[in-house]
DNA sequence: TTGACATTACGAAATCCTTCGTAGTAACCT
DNA sequence: AGGTTACTACGAAGGATTTCGTAATGTCAA
């Protein structure tokens, strides 16, 4: 499979674990997730199997306990999700997106500064 | 119904129309959407009925052709969607969200300027 | 009034998502 | 070898989503 697909909510949760931990077994993913919420072992297994067939993860079957790894780097997937929502919800307006993202919460001075820095950098690369 | 729920992808599409047009009949919504993609009349009707029971829209049954209206203003719903994704995908980091949203496309000078203006304004209101 | 037409109500199929139970299989220990 | 444990594979239930067809009902003109 070379075609990445859009992950569902549950799949995204698993991808988060794989991005954080790197290649992991079902047991490891399950332990990480079930620390936060109850979820059956075979549920995680099944999800990883589905994700394998969708091309969202790759599976190393060398060892008895298969090792799963996210197919796409976190950056790429997150970018796709952000772009998709930008289009679907905000008609492609980044300003609107940021306005709403900021409105719902309290951003620290540091974060605002970071956002400014990102804008500078973006503009510099643009030309 | 006073509890708003999270709209699905199709429901969001309909909300877009209602936000743009204001209160509309099934026929009007259907015409607007089917200008872009084929979709049966009763499909739109059914969706609006479901959305009514979910509390996403309100229905005025005065006239024979019922008139539907978005329950929540666009701003509020968009804010919720943005906040939800911010949390789920970007662990609450607005910078990360914007970074990825910008990365996938070309933003005009005007848009960058607008983003800076928003940051200024946000900071001003904060203190 | 009756036929044509617009509209709503309802049911249901097809697909996807999420979750888990059961069965099979391999490995390991005594 | 036999029993226990750790895995994977598979099927399937239950719910949500999306889509549409058909039936029922109201409206209006001839």
Q: Which structural category fits the helices and strands of chain A?
A: mainly alpha
The largest beta-sheet of chain A arranges its strands as 1-3-2
Share in β-strands of chain A: 5-15%
How many strands, which pairing sense, and closed or not: the largest β-sheet of chain A?
A: 3 strands, antiparallel
Q: How much helicity do the residues of chain A have? A: 55-70%
Mean pLDDT of chain A: 93
Quick description:
Two copies of one chain form a homodimer. Chain A has 127 residues and is mainly alpha-helical.
Explain this structure to me?
The structure is a homodimer of 127-residue chains. By secondary structure, chain A is mostly helical. Chain A has helices spanning 9-21, 26-34, 41-54, 74-90, 94-103, 109-126, and strands at 24-25, 57-60, 67-70. In chain A, strand 2 (57-60) and strand 3 form a beta hairpin. In chain A, helix 2 packs across helix 3 (41-54). The radius of gyration of chain A is 18 Å and the shape is elongated. Chain A starts with 8 loop residues before the first helix and ends with a helix. The model of chain A has no long low-confidence stretch (mean pLDDT 93). The structure holds a DNA duplex (30 and 30 nucleotides).
């Amino acid at each position: 499979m070379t075609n990445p697909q859009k992950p569902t909510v549950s799949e995204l949760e698993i991808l988060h674990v794989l991005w954080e931990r790197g290649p992991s077994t079902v047991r490891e993913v399950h332990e990480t997730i079930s620390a936060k919420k109850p979820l059956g072992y075979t549920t995680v297994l099944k999800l990883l199997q589905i994700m394998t067939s969708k091309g969202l993860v790759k599976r190393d079957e060398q060892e008895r306990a298969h090792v799963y790894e996210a197919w796409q780097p976190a950056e790429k997937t997150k970018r796709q999700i952000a772009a998709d929502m930008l289009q679907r919800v905000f008609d492609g307006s980044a300003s609107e997106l940021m306005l709403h993202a900021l409105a719902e919460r309290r951003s620290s001075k540091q974060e605002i500064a970071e956002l400014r820095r990102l804008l500078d950098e973006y503009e510099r690369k643009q030309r």
